[in-house]
Design brief:
Oligomer: single chain
Structural class: mainly alpha
Number of helices: 10
Distance between the termini: 14 Å
Number of strands: 0
Helix content: over 70%
Radius of gyration: 22 Å
Order of helices and strands: HHHHHHHHHH
Strand content: under 5%
Largest sheet: none
């Protein structure tokens, strides 16, 4: 959702830059190149804003993950006993919430060993691996979660993000996963529109900038 908001902001700023530049350059109604120069100004503004966003995203990707490795207070409680796959799944969620990602991995693994057909356990273990930046182990878990539940929105989003940004980059696969999320009605509860936009344009490039004013609003 934040990415979508930033892209929307960049689109608005580029349009405003074009509008005011064109008015200034065309004030005497004699400049035939006013539209072209105004477009260049708008593109420069968009490039500067996108560069700042990319730098911020890069620094964020390099910053230590605050979820794993530090203790977090939580209002959730661990299960009273650990017997079933659901018990270990709930324990994994609790350990993840408190910041003990390694323990959460062990819990989800136990849940899977007790019930190999548990898509939520595969997805949550994968997401925990993602927070630990272990994408090579996360991807097979997401594949399995989607095999067990082809309409699993969160697993599709997670797999799309891995292929779009982090590991074994395959933006066509990312587009397919994001479009499946949208077809399932998942656009409202996720940031899928912004991620789909970047995947379709193969990341940040000139096509991304040109497409911002129109494509960003075509997600449905």
């Amino acid at each position: 959702m934040k990415l979508l908001i930033f892209l929307f902001f960049i689109a608005i700023m580029a349009k405003l830059a074009y509008y005011f530049s064109f008015r200034y350059l065309n004030r005497d109604k004699k400049r035939k190149d006013a539209k072209q120069k105004a477009f260049i100004v708008a593109m420069v503004i968009a490039l500067i804003l996108i560069s700042l966003l990319v730098v911020a995203m890069y620094r964020g990707s390099r910053a230590p993950d605050l979820q794993c490795g530090t203790y977090h207070a939580t209002t959730s409680y661990p299960p009273a006993e650990l017997k079933t796959a659901m018990d270990y799944f709930a324990q994994g969620n609790y350990d993840y919430d408190t910041g003990d990602c390694g323990k959460a991995i062990d819990d989800y693994t136990m849940a899977i060993s007790l019930n190999p057909n548990y898509p939520q356990a595969y997805n949550n273990r994968a997401y925990t691996f993602m927070r630990m930046r272990n994408y090579a182990q996360a991807l097979p878990d997401l594949d399995q979660a989607i095999i067990l539940n082809p309409n699993y929105i969160q697993a599709l989003m997670n797999r799309g993000d891995i292929h779009n940004y982090y590991f074994e980059i395959d933006r066509q696969q990312a587009v397919a996963d994001y479009e499946k999320v949208i077809s399932l009605g998942g656009a409202r509860g996720t940031s899928v529109c912004g991620h789909l936009f970047l995947a379709r344009h193969d990341g940040w490039n000139l096509g991304t900038i040109i497409g911002i004013p129109t494509d960003i609003f075509s997600c449905h």
